[in-house]
Design goal:
Elements: E1 3-10, E2 16-23, E3 29-37, H1 40-57, E4 61-70, H2 74-90, E5 95-99, H3 104-114, H4 117-122, E6 125-129, H5 132-142
Parallel strand pairs: 3-4, 4-5, 5-6
Antiparallel strand pairs: 1-2, 2-3
């Protein structure tokens, strides 16, 4: 899978915590890769970067790779549902695939978010996967 690096974010300790890529074969797909322990502030900053990139490049699909993300993000879920996800729909992005974390707390937070009925109400489709390849298959099925 060929991807083009777009940008990255660093935390206060100067450690990378989020990388952003465009898939060469699917230029309408943005990939964000998370790693390490992220505070709620960093999760919001990272998703603000998604908003910026979607605005600039008109991406229509998002793959959030949280395989290496550590910690819970339940307290940010409300912000996702009330601010981030509606903004994505406004910008023309309605599909997000989350590649699951091995961290139990991150898994539970992702499951809570995906199962929230607010997503269906606003027309945002989100599912959990174990690989990018399976997420791409779902995107193809939904076209």
């Amino acid at each position: 899978m060929n991807k083009t690096f777009l940008t990255k974010l660093k935390n206060e300790l100067n450690d990378d915590y989020a990388h952003y890529y465009q898939l060469k074969e699917y230029p309408h797909i943005l990939i964000q890769e998370w790693k390490g322990f992220c505070m709620p502030k960093e999760l919001k900053e990272g998703h603000q970067k998604v908003i910026d990139l979607v605005t600039k490049h008109q991406f229509t699909h998002l793959i959030s790779v949280i395989v290496e993300l550590e910690g819970a993000f339940e307290e940010v879920n409300e912000w996702f549902l009330k601010d981030f996800n509606p903004k994505m729909v406004d910008l023309g992005m309605e599909y997000e695939a989350i590649i699951q974390s091995k961290n139990l707390f991150s898994q539970l937070s992702a499951e809570d978010l995906v199962e929230d009925s607010t997503l269906k109400e606003i027309g945002y489709h989100m599912r959990l996967f174990d690989s990018i390849e399976n997420a791409l298959e779902w995107f193809e099925e939904e076209r």
